[in-house]
Structure formats: C-alpha cells, structure tokens
Amino acid sequence: MSDTSDKDQKTFTLTNDQTGESCKLPVHDGTCGPSVIDVRKLYAETGHFTFDPSFTSTGSCKSRLTFIDGEEGILMHRGYSIEDLANKSSFLELAFLLLYGDLPKPDEMSEFKENITYHTMVHEQLNFFFRGFRHDAHPMAIMCGVVAALSAFYHDSLDIWDEKQREISAHRLIAKIPTLAAMTMKYTMGQPFVYPRNDLNFSENFLHMCFSVPAEEYKVNPIYARAMDKIFILHADHEQNASTSTVRLAGSSQANPFACIAAGIASLWGPSHGGANQAVLEMLDQIGHKDNIPEFLERAKDKDDPFRLMGFGHRVYKNYDPRAEVLKVSADEVLSDLGVDNDPQLQLAMELERIALEDPYFVDRKLFPNVDFYSGIILKALGFPTSMFTVLFAVARTVGWISQWKEMIEEPSLRIGRPRQLYTGPAARPYVDIDKRK
Ligand code: SDX
User: Fold this and answer.
1) Could you write out the DSSP letters of every residue in 99-137?
2) pTM for this prediction
C-alpha cells in the first residue's frame, strides 16, 4: 500500500500465547484518523482469520473522499468541512468535488452542470415499469426496481473498464435518480409524471418534478430550494456506511454501476440506516406529547422492548453528528421562513433531545442525535410524505455511492470482496437415508 522503505515501515507484532509463534504486520498511516494494521497476510502466515462481524474495527478500503472523526464530531469531504460545504457550496458542486477531487473552476462547473442537466430525462419506456407496482407500494420498493432497470437501457455505458463509460454512467445516475424519485412520488400520489426542466437548477428542478401539477403553474420557493439543496449536501457521502459498503461489495464483482446503486438503495432502506428519517417522524407521532417522553425513554432503555430512540446513536459518532447540528438550525430557519412557528413536532423533538441528553443511559453510551433526527421535520415542512424521506436520502447518497464506486474501480488492485467466517455448524457426518432416520 505505502511505498515506505522496510526500515521505516511501522509494524504490529501478534503473538500466539499458546505456541509463542508471532507474526509481524505492517501498519499504515492515513492523512488523519486511526492508522491501520494490514492483516492481508495474516491467514497465510498464521492460519487464522480476523473476526469482526459488524466491522466495528475493520477498515475495508483506502479512500480519499470523506473523513469522519466520531469522537470530535468532524465530517469533511476531500478536506472541506461539512459546515463550510452546507453553508457555502451547492449539491452539484459537492458532487463534482466527490467525483473529481477538487472544487470546480467556473468553466468546469458550467460544463458539469450542463452534463447533468442534459441527462435528467429517462427513457420513455421506463414509465411502464411503474405500472407494475401497486399504487400503495412503498416508494423505496419502487426505487429498488426502477433503478436496477436503468441498466437495461444503457448498454453503451456498462463497460466499467472504460473511463468515459464510467463517467457517463455516473452522470446518468446523478441526473436520473432524482427524476425517478419524483416519478415514484407522483405514482404513489396518483398524479401524472412531470418532466425535468433544463432552466431550473438541480434542487429547483427536483422540487418542480415533485410538486408541480398540470392544472396550475408551480413557482419554486427559493427558501424550499435552498433547504432541499442543503439536505442533499448533508446526505451526500459518509465514508464506509452500510449502503456504501454494499455498493462497493457489489462493484467488486464487476457488476454494472446501475445494479450496484440499486443494491445500495436496498441497504439504505433499513430503519437502522437511511430508513431512520421516516421512523423518527413515526416515533414523534407515537410519542405525541412531551409528557409521554419519560415513558418512551424507559422503553428505549429496556432490552426486552424493541423500541429504540430513532434518530439517536451512531456507529461512528460518539459526539453530536455535525449534520444534525446544521439540520437543527436549518429546521428552525425553514419553519419560521414558512411561517410555521413553534411547529409541534420540532418542539417535541427538541424537548426529547434535551431530556435524553440529560439521561445517564444516553450520555454514558454517547448516544446523540444523528443526521436523521431533524431531517424528517424539514422534509415534512417542505411537503414530502413521510414514506418519501428515505428516497430523498437515496437521491443525495447516489453522489457518494457512485463516487466511492468510481474510486474503487480506479484502484489498480481491484479484487472481488470475499470475507471468510468462523464456522460453528456441525462437524462432518454421514448422510442417513430417510427410511433410516429415527
Ligand atoms: C445513518 O454509518 C453511517 O454513517 C450511517 C449514516 C450515513 O450517513 O450513512 O450516518 C446514516 O444510518 C444514521 C443512523 C440512523 N439510525 C437510527 O437512528 C436508528 C437508531 N439508532 C440505533 O439503531 C443505533 O444507534 C445505530 C444502528 C445507529 C448504531 O448501532 P451500533 O453502532 O451497532 O450501536 P449498538 O446497537 O451496539 O448500541 C450500543 C448501545 C447498546 O446498548 P448496550 O448493549 O451497550 O446496553 O447503545 C444502545 C444499544 O442498545 N443504543 C440505543 C440506541 N442506539 C444504540 N438505545 C436506544 N436507542 C437508540 N437509538
């Protein structure tokens, strides 16, 4: 991995306490964050695997895209802080940064914007895929299907070893998934699909496709568009989370990028991951009133009760999720801009956060609000149905997924991901014919 000379190479020595055998393993340092112990030769030298079922201590790859410091609550993309990007950048500019490594110069930005804009329409035949779903299908079920179907339309860009085809697939996915998301929302509402508009920017166009109807003109509210763009920025990428790891593993088999992104959508759907934003709103409805908060906090602590405080806790952040900080401020701004003062759900969420962060159970486990805790409140204020919240997360995370996929494919040492296991099943035993089984 690193070109450190042998004498300067840092190492970690593992010793088998039973046999006294030891194995010297290289240690690699990143730009910042924890160093890694390179265990690639561990099995060959010791006959042992490492064991880390939910990857709490495992680095699956090298990456230059995103850095998270969970203890300090830091998130940066290519060295730029999420706070700066959320307050000064745009979602499409962040997409360029994640894909190509630097903030675009003006001419690069106009070319990129044009490339994305002119790929926002989908093949007209894709409309027929929607007809196969029940009108009350969950929007994420529809998205899993229609995004995977994209690969049936773009045989001219499925060669993952061709740099130009990789780039056009990335542009097509970033441009078309918002269109498919808006079509999904329209289909579940029984309203006609709305075509993209090239005269609108990314988030304005998305809101127009979601909320305009043929019966009257729809003017995009700039406050809504800015809030939408900020939400997309905050959800764009997040290191090797479950859905990104799913995309990378699917991509390691050389599956086409459309199929890989569909796999990422499926993984994001879970309530422990991207499905949490929908679950937070449902939880706030379930709690109903601040007087009920203590009862629900007790349920969240009860190991025999499946209830969890949705939007709280994180595998990496053991401090406040910096995205939740930005969203909390944004929720307040958007709601007051919309004239929705003292929104009851926002008030309930802030009271729930206040009480939980005084409770030793949550403080001792460093369970803070995460990105999903406040996002749903803004999305609801913007007019989205709760069932669309995770679809909106997928629209944003497509930029991170495809950037991570591109980075992996462009690594010289791409190999299929193939973890091993600790086998705890039966030892070898002879087959017994059915008439001899007792
Ligand atoms: C996202 O990985 C990413 O980067 C994800 C994400 C991204 O941008 O891609 O940031 C997006 O997925 C955010 C997380 C959204 N999910 C939720 O809000 C669902 C609620 N949160 C929990 O399910 C949980 O906190 C997870 C899944 C987020 C993290 O789970 P971990 O790291 O496996 O932690 P854990 O379950 O081992 O919890 C440690 C302790 C346990 O108690 P003890 O066994 O130590 O007594 O904390 C408890 C847990 O029971 N705990 C909670 C809790 N979260 C953890 N207790 C009550 N409510 C919670 N929400």
Assistant:
1) HHSSPPPHHHHHHHHHHHHTT-S--GGGHHHHHTS-TTS
2) 0.95
